[in-house]
Each structure stands twice: as C-alpha cells, then as structure tokens.
Amino acid sequence: MSLMLLDTASLYFRAFFGVPDSLRAPSGMPVNAVRGLLDTIAWLATTHRPDRMVACWDDDWRPAFRVEAIPSYKAHRVAQEVPGTTGIEEVPEVLRAQVPIIADVLAAVGIARVGVPGYEADDVIGTLTTRAVEQGTGPVDIVTGDRDLFQLVDDAAGVRVLYPARGIRDPDVVNEERLAEKYGVASGQAYADMATLRGDPSDGLPGVPGVGEKTAAKLLAQYGTLARILAARDTGDRGLTSTQRRRLQEADAYLRVAPVVVQVARDVPLPSFDPAVPAAPADPEALDALTTQWGLSSSVQRVRTAFGWA
User: Fold this and answer.
1) 5'-3' exonuclease domain: from which residue to which, for each copy (predicted)?
2) Pick from 308, 307, 291, 306: which is nearest to 108 by CA?
C-alpha cells in the first residue's frame, strides 16, 4: 500500500514561480499555482500510482517551539509582526489569494489535506512517515523541494524523497546511495546532523562557523553522529583538530538547541483522515463549480484521468 506525501506549500510555491501567470480565471485572477499544483498531482498519480496520497499542510509556517529555540529561524521571511504569533510569512499576494482555492479544490477532489496547529508540513510528513515505517505500510515517497526532508530517507524502510530539482517530471530520487554520492553522508539521520553543523541561511540557521558541508560530512564519517562528535570535543579526542574543537565549543549554545529546529517532529497529534487515493470526487458538484469559477477545466480533467475517473 504505497503512500505518497506531498509537501504542498513547497509544490505550490514551485508551481507559482514556474507556471506563467497568464493562466487566469474568467475573472482575470491568476490561477497558475492552482493549475500547476493540480498538474503536478496528476503527473505524480499517473507516473507512480500511489495507493494513498496526503497533501501535508503548513498550519504554522514558523512554529513557536522552533523560534523559542533559535529566534533567527525564518526571521528574514517575516512580512509582518503580529503580537502573540511568530509573524506573517512574506508571500506574494497573487499567490496568497490562490491558497484558499487550492484547499477548496483538494477537498472537492477528495485528497486528504492534513495540517496541525503549531506544526509545519515537515512535521506532518515526519509523523506520517514514522507511522508507516512502524506499521509496515510503506513504501513512502515524499515529494518536496525542501532538502530538510532528506533526513527521513531510509532504504530499509522504503522511504525516499522525490526532489524536483530539474522539475517534477525528472526529479532527483533521493535514497541513501544518493545521499552518500551528493553529500557524503550515509543515512537520513546523518543528513540531519550534517545540516545542523552546516546550518542553512535560507532558514536562518547559522550552523557552526567554519564548518561547511564537506567538513561536517567528514566529521560524521569519522564519528558517526553529532552526539559522538560533541563527545569527542568534550573528551579531547585527538581525531579533532584544535581548530575544529574550538569552533564546536564556541558554537555550543547553538548546538544544544539546533536539533530541535532541524529535526522534524515524528509524533504530531494528527486528526483522523482517509489517505486513500479517491475513487471518485468527494464533492462532484463543488468540483464542477470550482472548475467553472476558476477556469480549471484542463487541469481538473488531467486529475480525473490520472485517478481513473474519466
């Protein structure tokens, strides 16, 4: 019973920037993100034939628990500070207007859309992947443009990432062999440890100054895990140079909290939902109305064909 998990925001952002905004509804409103996402779903369903598909959702794009650990987390993407929240994300208004349409169309089609307050889609994906592995209900394909989710790759459990670096029709299939070839790490967990050491400016994570991707991978090859690297630092292990030891020590405050930010949650309290690929539209009348209102005929037809409705 194969499971496909969509990092929905990653995919509709990619569609928005990759599909011309000349694709418009009868009202003149751009619907390029809506149509691009539907075309992506149709392609994935046709090519991979998953038994189950979940559109994982960012109910919280910048969770408080991550900001409390590292205040710079995604801080550069805050468009507006709002008291009592971690801020409103900077999103093009033309895209922001399409997100509710995407949610409505997914509901009418019958694709489960799952988000949890206080968590990102990454955490929903981490939890669903963990459940599938524990229950033996894989394999699992994660579709995302976010490298953070490489940490979930697990060959033995049948978990891989389809990373559309060259487009959704020619994704980079990320398994443990690919992680070793591209990043010099042996597992998904090692990738998370490497990302912690390296940092990620796009997410506001400083990393350990002076420790880049290659050095991080070399240290992980030498010691196996971040915890063992830090143990070597603390015990004066001679495998670390004096410079490496000093840099790791100076970054101690960051390294104590970074794993909470970098690693996806695997125990999110998910709502009940049906992940099965729909055998028919969940709400045919609503789907027809949305198709007409927003000019989605060709994209919706591709979804119908992909799911075997037409």
Assistant:
1) 1-279
2) 291
The structure tokens 């960012």 sit at: 58
Overall pTM surpassing 0.85 (yes/no): yes
pLDDT digits over 136-164, tens only? Answer: 999 999 999 999 999 999 999 999 999 99
Place of tokens 């670390």: 240
Alpha-helix runs per DSSP H in 168-296: 176-183, 188-198, 213-223, 226-235, 242-250, 252-262, 284-294
Q: Note whether 279 and 15 are within 8 A (CB).
A: no
What is the dihedral angle through the alpha carbons of 293, 295, 301, 303, rounded to the nearest 10 degrees? -80
CB 240 within 8 A of CB 220: no
56 Cβ partners below 8 Å, 6+ apart?
5, 6, 7, 8, 114, 115, 121, 124, 125, 128
Q: Which residue has the tokens 């390294």?
A: 255
